[in-house]
Amino acid sequence: MTNVEIQLKGSPRATVGLSAVDKAVYLINDKNKLTRKLVKDTMKLGDLACSPGGGLHVGQVFYHAGFVIMTQDLDRTPATEINNILCSLKQITAEVSFGRYRRASDFCCISGRYRRGHNCKVAWQEFSYYRKTEFCRSAFMQCCNPAPELPPTRKVITSGEVDESENERTPSARLRQDAKSISPIFSLYFPESELFQEYRLNPSGLHKLNFTLPDSLTTWHIQGMSLSDTSPFCVSKPISLTTFKNVITKLNFPRVVKRLEQIYIKAVVYNYKTHPINVKVNFHETKEICSHAAPGKPFPVKLSIPAKDIGVAGVVIVPLKAGNFTIHIEVYEVESNTLEIIEKVLHVKYEGVKKTNSFSLMLDPSGTYSGHKRHRRHIFKDVTIPKNEISASQKMQRIIMKLTQPAEAIDGSAKGDIVITGNILGSTIQTTLKEPHKLLDKPYGCGEQTMIFLAPCVYILSYLNSTNQGSQVIYENATRYIRLGILREQEFRKMDGSYAAFDQNPSSVWLTAFVLKVFCQASEFEHVDSHLTKSAMTWLFQKQRLDGSFIEDYPVIHQEMVGGVNDRVMTAFVLISLMECGYKMHPVEIYRRKNEIDLAIRYLEKQMAVTYDTYDMAIISYALALADSSRKYEARIKLRSMAIENYDKGYLYWRVGGYSNVTAKKVSAWYHTEESYLSVEATAYALLTEMHYGEVEHVGPIVKWLIEQRNSAGMFKSTQDTVMALQALAEYGIKTITPDINLFFNLTSSRAHLHKHLTVNKETSLWSHIIPDVPMNDEVLIESMGIGSAQMELNMWYYRPPTQRETCHFNVTHIIMPIQKDVRRLIKRGCPLCGESCRNLNGPILRNWDVSDQTICMKIYLRYLGTSDPGMVVLDMDLLTGYDTHEELLEQLKLDRLIAKYHKHGNSRLTLYFNTIPFNKEIEIKLLMFRTMIYMNRLMPAPINVYVYYNATESCTKFYQLSREKDLINLLCDSSKKVCKCAQRDCVTCYESMSELVNIKLKFLEKKSCAKEQIVMIVNMTSTFDSSGTAYGFVQEDLSKTDIPDLEEHVAIFQKGICHCPHVKVGEIYLIMANKRVRTLDESNQYRHKFWVDSSGLMINKKNQFVKGEIDIFEQKARSLSRQAFCG
């Protein structure tokens, strides 16, 4: 590390903030680089004004300034004028403002309006947009309304500003090592940024500080900004500080790898000296990392590096467990007698498929929702609740819960936590307003997804506002999400007022109705131009048929939401949107359109008689209730007859699918709690219907069932059911009096050290109380006492190995082909992907691609296995470790309309999503991937997960990999690789020559047999070692008396890996010692014990004349004594 002294100069007593950023970060992306312009632009975002000032009349002056004046004495700003004003992040642009511009130019016009009052020519040059066409420029300039050029401003010297001449005099800091004796230099800390502290200048405007730069050898970009009571805000000019050494060692490996991947750890030594040097690099052993290094015995590599050249030392490793591991090396330079110690963290994650199980349980010690005892319940196969009892008189509830690591889980990968919230919407509130991406856990970016993120914010804020809960921070977060969501959705608006999922897609009736519904509800908190909602209503009425129904002209993405796109469900959904929105924002329009609304009501009344599906009946019933149909009570009675009642649990809900819904069903408490997303949505509509009739006091069982369907993030089964359930629960919360809450929780485990005490009261009821690391294979006692109710959510996640027999709803296949260097040159110049046909160079030009990179072409073939197209489909795939793909190629897939959108998560994951995947034909996607990091022969398979966006249960996961070649690191694993042990040690001694055999004496055998975990066996070999180093043998006797089941008189597997010997003969008897063992399935699907025979073990033919006598004596002694007595 380097010690640095910096002197700060500025205004007296000014507060100065400093930052030091590695310059390499800005080479990758400098969009957020701190500049004066960035600070000024950010400050402008907080300006609510709509213009630089002035106005036609006094009311407009106030309006332009961002004020709302509540008085009757000022002239009201005409609506036509308001529609032509776009407030920065405040008012949605009206159609009148940019009516003649289409799709891409809408965004250009909005961006131009944001820059009103500035030099529009300069603003256009600074405007960054990937579709920056001449048409876009015309829209930008037209909406910008160029203001007169402002005179150049004077430069004001303010606190913290560094003079250029002073900046030039700042020397670069250099690190030089010139030690004459070994003095270890520790290189452990390599952040991308540092400092980030505030300092107070003294009355003279000075401050000196000493700090230590990290170990990175790079150029640091150091910058300051200051605030003062007496001087303007200031951003200083940056200074650069370079750290350097004559001999530099860089430790290179991927930042994140998967368990059991073979990774090449590379130490690159740079010699900047004018003479050659000799270097010894020692790779030290790391626990749970398998390598050529052993405890106390590092793996050495010697290098002779010429002057001004580099040397590379490397070692292959295999992580055996997931977690963060420190890779430790020593670099010793012989000539200067210096030693440098370098440590760097390797992040290892589990391979395979991540599985998540979540369930909710109500904690209700006072018996508010159910005052009787509850019985044993089986949640799912890995979680049981032997006891769940309530004593309402004592206000106490006792739950015993047991979590079991799933049998399919990779050993040690199962984790769990418990989350307790004191509000029916607690976890949902936090997720919606803090991390909305977790609420739905899906990719986002199209018009429909934007609305699905916007809607929860609206319902949550409505609930908090109506119940006087939450804080100013919560309110500001929610309104910010709502504001940005409204702006974002305008990118998908058509000129006729309708909305589409993507730019190129036709308008959607369902999406337009959904936008109308949410925008009208959002208008309570953010300004929504009435022209937007009214034009959407007008467009919807134009889509109504003569019989009163509404249909979708084109395949809707979210097909399952509308029950297979039948007309009655679509009609009910549109009618709900019209009624919810109309009376809030457009009562006159609803009155004027009474005939059309009555026509839709009559259509649904006719359909009600032939409707037997629970989902259809639920949405029709709510629509008729809102529209005040004369047959609304008849619809309600029919819906109630379809309910499922569970008296043991106090549930009332509506199940969709799987049986006739004509009559009511009563089910046992032993049923599996997993219900479909359509059941959640139907129950939400039923709850809204009941509350519309004022049945607030009797809907507790419905609310209870809905709450217990959520996961830890507040999400339900899918997307639209999450939105509808939140609307229903928020409406319930608004219409009920929030009870007092004062609960005490005690959580303990029987074997693990879990002792946790929690208190939840009114002040903390909105926030989650998380108990992490809930023990697996243990019982947890949860005691709750007090008044009120709370929600407990258990989350368990684990990884399982990939299987060949996955249940797939898609046909997913792939082909991987290497791309030769001559073809790579053609691809760089524009040859189509994979270089199969280069007659036309019409592909993207890859200017930044180095053709020397090893490259592969991956072809993915997809087909849906259903009977009709599924709607939006997502392909989510991990990239192979050390491989990446260019965004230019992904853009080409989008331009070719093979995909609708893509999202690249760094260089580790890629998400593609499609309007649909056909059921009647196969589509092909080509991906070009290039190597960015050296790897060894085997990388772990990477998953390709394909699923229907709105119904993730319809999915398929397949794995792809490059090679199945023999491992370079020896591992001992079971068949599924859930459990692996490192077997990378020296090979077993052959003991085949006379000189080796005569040295085997009784004491030698005794010492070998008493090694830690050593198992001593007499084995009849039934096969020789094959090319993979594997042989089979029948275990006649276990001399070590370990009582291992299924060992004696069973066939076992023996491995020697890549070792040359031993050689065995079929039918002969061997004395075998080994201390590494796993239990695995063999090729015939039989469980076998597998042993690794290495230098700590032994394998000798009993009949060999040189050792037969010693082995016989050893056997007799081992049989006559216990292991403890034998080994002392």
TrEMBL record:
The keyword Disulfide bond applies. Gene3D superfamilies: 1.20.50.70, 1.50.10.20, 2.20.130.20, 2.40.50.120, 2.60.120.1540, Alpha-macroglobulin, receptor-binding domain, Anaphylotoxins (complement system), Immunoglobulins. Residues 193-283 form the Alpha-2-macroglobulin domain. One of its GO terms (cellular component) is extracellular space. Keywords: Disulfide bond. Residues 870-960 form the Alpha-macroglobulin receptor-binding domain. GO terms for molecular function: endopeptidase inhibitor activity. Transmembrane segments: none annotated. This is Uncharacterized protein. It comes from Acanthosepion pharaonis (Pharaoh cuttlefish).
